[in-house]
Amino acid sequence: MEAYERWIRRNKHFVHKFDTLANYLTWLLPDEFAESEIWPEAVSSLVGMITTVNEYIIDTSPTEVHMRCAESSFIPLSLCLTLLKDLETSIEVVAEQLYGEKNKWNLIAITEAVKVCIRLAIFRNSGYKMLLQGGETKNAENDSDSFRPQQTKRQLDKPTGNEESGITKTLHLQNSGNLEDRAISALSSFSKNATMQHPQAIMEPPSKIVEKPSLRTFLSEKSICGGFFVTGEILFIIRPLIYVMLMRKYGTRSWFPWCVSLAVDLIGNSILSVTLMSQHSGKKQQLQSSDSEKDELKRRRMLWALYLMWDPLFTKHTRQRLESTQRLAQHVPILGFVAEKLVEIVIGVQSRYTYTSSS
């Protein structure tokens, strides 16, 4: 495995081009594969998982890999989450082929439950920071707060007992010898003290150790704001599982799963927004929101547009609007052809939960 990682890092430009080409080639599978939906999705998932692993190897240096291996012997949770998302469409297709349209939601619910567990673990391991890209991107904005280069410099500049004795000796020599002898003695004393007292501190900065707080510690430090923040983030994490469980019970024709999912999204996002905005109104800031976390909130709001693709809203309203727009544009030579293909693609994408799940 190490040899493969070294080869990937040495040939990262070739690997990027090859992965892109492989993803394009999945659209040109033979007719034998096109007769079944399982094989095209399986090949696409396999290519996606290989691409994900290659990108992870390229983006992580050997030092970071060794540090993560020291912390845990398992694959990083963010990588597991991305691999599962690459595989989930194939899981949905296999479930539909084997168990039918209605019973496929059982296997989808299991997949979403696994993703919820992984995201909760990432949320805990990160010290209860907001999940970026659903947990696939590490939120490390405030990890450097505990490391102060000025403190390290003051520690290096502060003389110890032996250093003080060396300086005293140097000053004594300055009063008793000529200029050349005093310069040689001072340089020798400085070199000896620097080598003996701080051999590692000069070569490299002290390693940064960031302790992740427990939930009780986090809530005690952040008080009520921390409780609201954790509640809003947990609602974001479990919302897909709630939607799938309701779809499994009520079906695609019911408005109840759609409304409950939207309500959970609105409540969770509102709690997070109000909690992070309220820190600036008080004298004491208890939560520090970074630019990436603000962008994450905007990204989550943009994902609400996918509700237009969910049944029963899509079947009763969105699809009719798209088809009426297509009929208006069909008399225009190029625009009519493009509109027809776009509607076909949208309808095909909407047929799969995993394509529009935003989870």
TrEMBL record:
Family matches, as InterPro entries: Pex16
Q: Would the keyword Nucleotide-binding be found if you checked this record's keyword annotation?
A: no
Top-level division of the source organism's lineage: Eukaryota
Give the record's GO CC terms. Answer: peroxisomal membrane
Q: Where in or outside the cell is it found?
A: Peroxisome membrane
- Point to the regions of Polar residues compositional bias: 162-171
Q: Name one matching Pfam family.
A: Pex16
Transmembrane region(s): 224-243
- Give a GO biological-process term: peroxisome organization
Q: Where is this region: Disordered?
A: 138-171
Which keywords accompany this UniProt record?
Membrane, Peroxisome, Peroxisome biogenesis, Transmembrane, Transmembrane helix
Family that this chain belongs to: Belongs to the peroxin-16 family.
Name this polypeptide is given? Peroxisomal membrane protein PEX16
**Which species does this protein come from?**
Anisodus acutangulus
